[in-house]
Amino acid sequence: MSTPVLALTGVHRTYPGTPPVEALRPSDLTVRPGDHLAITGPSGSGKSTLLNIIGLLDRMTGGEYLLNGRSVGLMTELGRTSWRSRQIGFVFQSFHLLNYRTALENVELSMLYGTVGRRERAARAREALSRVGLDHRIDSFPGTLSGGERQRVAIARALAARPSVLLCDEPTGSLDSRTTGVVLDLLEELNQDGLTLLVVTHERDVAARARRRITISDGQLHETEMDSGVAAGAGSLAASGTDVRVQGESTGEGTPA
Question: What is the pTM of this model?
Fold first, then answer.
């Protein structure tokens, strides 16, 4: 069996205070290559905390987290930054594109602080923009692009670094329904090509596209299998003290949520 992309064991996060805030209760989560997960839950449920820990943007209070087989708990900040840039791609609701840079330059910037040479950066950026159907817009500035095109540039930027997993935080939150469908179709195509997806969303229709759904409530994780035909051996999740339920079921500002 292949090495999990993500493996969390007993991971939890408590913020100091009077009283302390237990934002994420001890939980186990396994995500294997090619998984497509939707993470849902109300505001304040712990989605941001979980996403920030998975994305190496915050440190867990306890537990063990393996990212592509490497334990990240004791890594230095420099080590975490380096490993994150090589393993994780981010797509946010608000695109986070630089208005004074072309689409091609925005995508290249994602590889600026890595080990990718200048010529390869340009080649990878062109390839990624072509993959999302924007090879004809490489010299366009964000202000001349539609919301859907800007989000596709953001996806291309994440893809160019060739990550093991794509973390999408409300990727359709700023889009109309038609454009939402276009972006979700693209994400599904990428997943079918083997890319592992974790999508945080408040939208039921977006969550329904995933093969696995993780619901967070009061810092506890629950999973419902979305597709009864998912092959055995797909990732598994369990939350300490919580039964895992498995059953068949038919432009703005943003931070990880």
Answer: 0.82
Tens digits of residue pLDDT in 44-85: 888 889 999 999 999 999 999 999 999 998 899 999 988 998
Cα–Cα separations (whole angstroms), residue 107 to 128, 228, 249, 253: 8, 37, 37, 19
232 CB neighbour count, 10 Å cutoff? 4
Those residues with Cβ within 8 angstroms of residue 148's Cβ, 6 or more apart along the chain or in another chain: 175, 179, 182, 183
Architecture of domain 6-239 in this structure: 3-Layer(aba) Sandwich (3.40)
Please return the burial class of 212, using the count of CB atoms within 10 Å of its CB with bins 0-12, 13-18 and 19+: buried
Q: Give the pLDDT band (50/70/90) at residue 152.
A: very high
112-138 in b/e form (b: 16+ CB < 10 A) is eeeebeeeebbebbbebbebbebeebb
Which among 50, 40, 37 is positioned nearest to 230, based on CA atoms?
37
DSSP structural state of residue 2: P
Residues comprising the chain, all counted: 257
**Sequence ranges of the domains in the chain:** 6-239
Q: Which residues contact 76 (CB under 8 A, 6 or more apart)?
A: none
Distance CA 160, CA 123 (A): 9
In the structure encoding, which two tokens stand for residue 50, read together? 């979980």
Rounded CA separation 145/173 (Å): 17
